[in-house]
Amino acid sequence: MRFTAEQEQDIALDICAAEERALEAVRGIGAAEEELTRRPKRAERTKAGAVERLEAAVRAAKVAAQDDPQIRPSVQQAEAALADSERLRWRLAMSAKHIARGEARKLVSSLMGEEDLVQEGQIGLLRAARRFDPERGIRFSTYARWWVRAQMTRAIETTGRTVRLPGGAVEQIRNLRRAAQRFDQDGVEYDLTMLAAEVGLEKRRAELLLSQGGIVSIDYPDDDGLCVGDRLPSDTLSPVENTFRSQAISKILDGFDDLLDERERFILTHHYGLSGQEAKTMAEIGKHIGLSRERVRQIEVGALMRLRTRL
């Protein structure tokens, strides 16, 4: 369901009101106040920083309530208010899911299919909903479009290649390409030195980034005479690698237990094959738990977003 500008504003204000109720509920609780007054590691330039601080305060209050029964009602009120804000935030994000579908059709390529891009776009919508401030005076759908496209392009750059580049390098590659496009549109002849100066990089750095920005065949030999395919690990893991893999999966599942509910854990565990069984499709999972494929996808997107912001 698409919202009008007035509906977007109303639901955003309802989210703020729910967060304010949660804040008032934990006011005066020592552990919560400590989190609320803690000096952040970096400036909180977005609303998401304040939300994360509030969630940390409620978690701290919940721990304190284990030893102090008197504050349990306040903690329960705060948790209920946060749950309301999450529900409203999900509604706000999903009201703009047509944006994710539209942007996915523009960016679909051999590197990532449309459905994968749509899923990344929905994660972008949730990130936008977490950061959206109704006092800015702009529509949520306008604000969210940038986050959707940013999430999709980063996914293409990072998961669509054999070797994943750091986020900062991806952004610099994008800036170099944009600068080149501007020069081309203006009819200006340019070289690598001009391009690097335009985006504030050293020439050697720009040359390295542009060499990594393209698609490299796995059959193309490097200076050592080896192909990229020769450097890829085989499917057979050594005992040491198996041990590390098991430990990593165990840590992931521990994170699931702390942050996700039973249904979310089931979906992620079976979709990615973390239970030691073969990975299942969303349709198979939905059939098993009595949900549609699209609903399973929505639950997975919400769970992944929570993991990305809190782990």
Quick summary:
The chain has helices spanning about 5-25, 30-35, 45-65, 70-95, 95-105, 115-130, 140-160, 165-185, 190-200, 205-210, 230, 240-260, 260-270, 280-290, 295-310.
Question: What would you say this structure looks like, in words?
Answer:
This protein is mostly helical. The chain has 15 helices and no strands. It has helices at 5-26, 30-37, 47-65, 72-94, 97-107, 114-131, 140-159, 167-186, 192-199, 203-212, 228-231, 239-259, 262-271, 282-289, 293-310. Helix 6 (114-131) crosses helix 15. The longest helix is centred in the N-terminal third of the chain and has 23 residues, at 72-94. 26% of the residues are buried. The model is unreliable at 214-237 (pLDDT under 50).
Number of strands: 0
Helix content: over 70%
Straight-line distance between termini? 31 Å
The secondary-structure element order is: HHHHHHHHHHHHHHH
Shape field: globular
Number of helices: 15
Largest sheet: none
Going by helix content, strand content and strand pairing, the class is mainly alpha
Residue stretches low in confidence (pLDDT < 50, at least 5 long) are: 214-237
Instruction: Please compute the radius of gyration using only Cα atoms.
Output: 23 Å
Mean pLDDT: 79
Kindly estimate the percentage of residues that lie in beta strands according to DSSP.
Answer: under 5%
